[in-house]
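Annex B. Sample input.
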Amino acid sequence: MYLIVRILIAIVIAEHFYFLWLEMFVWTTRGPKVFTHISAAQFKETKAMAANQGLYNGFLAAGLLWTFFIHDAIWQNNVSLFFLGCVTVAGLYGAYSVSKRIFFIQALPAIIAIGLSLLQMSISCALTAEICQLLWQ
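Annex B, continued. Sample output.
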């Protein structure tokens, strides 16, 4: 289960680094090909706003990437849950305010990772409690 959670987090990281690249560096060139429902003229007008969004996506990716370097399991899990929660909130708001597709692209992978992380934690706690009971009997 741990490996599945880490793979899901890696997918979320890759998505958000892609969003950073798209919104900060190629918004006016690649953006019109990705977001075909936005008129070409709007890309120049929204370049600074998109770059700001890209920067925030980069922070989310960096926070999740950081969790791969945390060796304490509890600390790693807590930091992962925090950043996955931030991604989920951003994805839910984007789905509400911009496009329902954002839910599936951004929020859903984070929600699944959160669910599996919590399941993994509860299994670990149950096993730990069982081991403790055996040791103290």
